[in-house]
Structures are given as C-alpha cells and as structure tokens.
Amino acid sequence: MFEATTILAYRGENHAVIGGDGQVTFGNTVLKGNATKIRTLYHDKILAGFAGSTADAFTLFDMFEGILNEKRGDLLKSVIEFSKKWRQDKHLRQLEAMMLVLNKEHIFILSGTGDVVEPEDGKIAAIGSGGNFALSAARALDRQTDLDAATLVRESLQIAGELCIYTNTNIKLLELKP
User: Which residues bind Na(+) (predicted)?
Assistant: First the structure.
C-alpha cells in the first residue's frame, strides 16, 4: 500500500471521471497540498492518475503515453502492452507507483508489479492509501443516490480525505463527457 495519495475513477454510460487529492507526503510530513496527480492522455480521450513515487509515476506516464500513441488510443491493447513491458523490464518492476486509467468504455488499475486489473463492476476503481475509503464511499453513493459522476467522485474523495492521513480534501477532477 502506498502512503501517498488517493485516486478514484468512475465510468458511467458514455461518461468517465477521475479525481485525486493534492497531498504529497514524505514520511510523516506533508510537503505539498495542491499537487496534480491526474491528467488526460491521447488527445484528451484517456484519463489517468497515479499513486506512489512522483518520479516513478512520471516515468510510467511517459511510457504509457508512448504505447497509447503506438496503439492509436486503443486503451485495452495499450494496457496489455504496457503490462508486458513493465513485467519484462528489471528497472520498471522496481518502480513504486500504481496507475489508474480509463476511457468511456474501460477502466483499469495498473499495479507496481505489472498487473492489469479491471474492476469487477467495470465502473469504479481506486488506488492509493485512501483508495479503499474512496472506493467504499463511491460504491455506497452509486447504489443509494442519483448523483452525477463528477459529484459522486468529489464526495467520495472528500470522505477519504476526512479519514486518511495521507489524503487531503484539495480535490481535482477530470471528465470525459458524452
């Protein structure tokens, strides 16, 4: 478990949202409270977020973006190729980061060991130290309310930020709208 951040993604019908908090922690010290850990990729058609070491995450973002370009934005083919390269490269296997990537059709967690995980429900995924808090809140809100996707992600991250000491409530969101 990375003591670094919280990233939450939600994929609805023809809509996708990713959100993250802004806290950067080093040991027991908050170094920064307004970091951006989410971004759009491949002509703003893919959303991505990271948890873990910042330098490692940038390495992974660059590598993943290169594969996305090679695969012409095909997220499924890209995560498979990315996983293969991650697992085969001795240096990459030592990186301490996870990624969450999604578009309007798919959502995937890319682990630090090169695994690719698609959530069972196919629509909600979270990573980082506050990930389980955010995931639990998102599932409950999804089942019990009619909140729009952006509000659901924001409220779930707010709850995680109130519970996890490695997560704050300086929340940023990115969306792919219909």
Answer: 161, 164, 167
